[in-house]
Write a structure and sequence with these properties.
Elements: E1 7-11, E2 14-18, E3 22-28, H1 42-54, E4 59-63, H2 76-94, E5 100-103, H3 107-116, E6 120-123, H4 133-140, E7 144-147, H5 165-183, E8 188-191, H6 200-208, E9 221-222, H7 228-234, H8 242-254, E10 259-262, H9 265-287
Helix pairs in contact: 1-2, 2-3, 3-4, 6-7, 8-9
Length: 288
Amino acid sequence: MTPFKPFSLNIRGRLLTFNRPAVMAILNVTPDSFYAPSRTAVAALGDKAKAMLDLGADMLDLGAYSSRPGADIVPENIEEKRLIDGIQAIREAVGYDIPLSVDTFRSSVARKAIEAGADIVNDIGGGTLDARMFDTVADLSVPYILMHMRGTPATMQTLTDYKDVVADVIEDLSRKLGILEESGVADVIVDPGFGFAKTLEQNYRMLAHLERFAILGRPVLAGMSRKSMLTRLLGIDAESAGAATAVVGALALERGASILRVHDPAEAAQSIAIINELQNAAKCSASE
């Protein structure tokens, strides 16, 4: 069992320290996200954000462009409007103390979203889908979630040829971390990219060896909520994958995950409480 390592994020000049793993709750202002209950109209977004926080979310992640395979291409101006309207609705409902990330791979959209009140850029492309992203994040001086992916959402599942998926993903993230550090980006969260350019078996290999990502020296985000690595294995649909999501979340926490990105914050918060208690019990046993 890998002990949790506290981490801090600079959120608009305010140092926010996490002494336990954090829950990042997913909000989508899209009509086609793979998990239908996560799709929320802007008018209902404030109430949904409040409910997520009441259920245990520590931060929110807002998306306006579905990254599922086969999803429609969303024009930049539409993604931007969806995000800005969504950010305004969330901030009006919950204020500015709650960290809010925006899920976008477009640097221009990221800039507009931060200017509108978001705090963190969550980039599924890890800088590969927009060459200006790293410089933009550096200029904005905001935390950045660096995810591993190959290709695009339309092509990624044809790009799963790895010598060693864990070592190869760590190497790719390490190289990009070096570029980000040189660019002046101080706060980086790494995301191995479960479900993105990974086969079913490769996803579980990464989960089995998630503790190896600690070598990067950054908080690790695990995003497996209701994904196909669960539904395909178990022969269920996304709506039935709540229990499976809680299980893999707990396994990720045992292996050192710092953040769980989920659709269901209550279950994730419960997993964190249980794993924390388990780790405390293990420490007590070791000292007796």
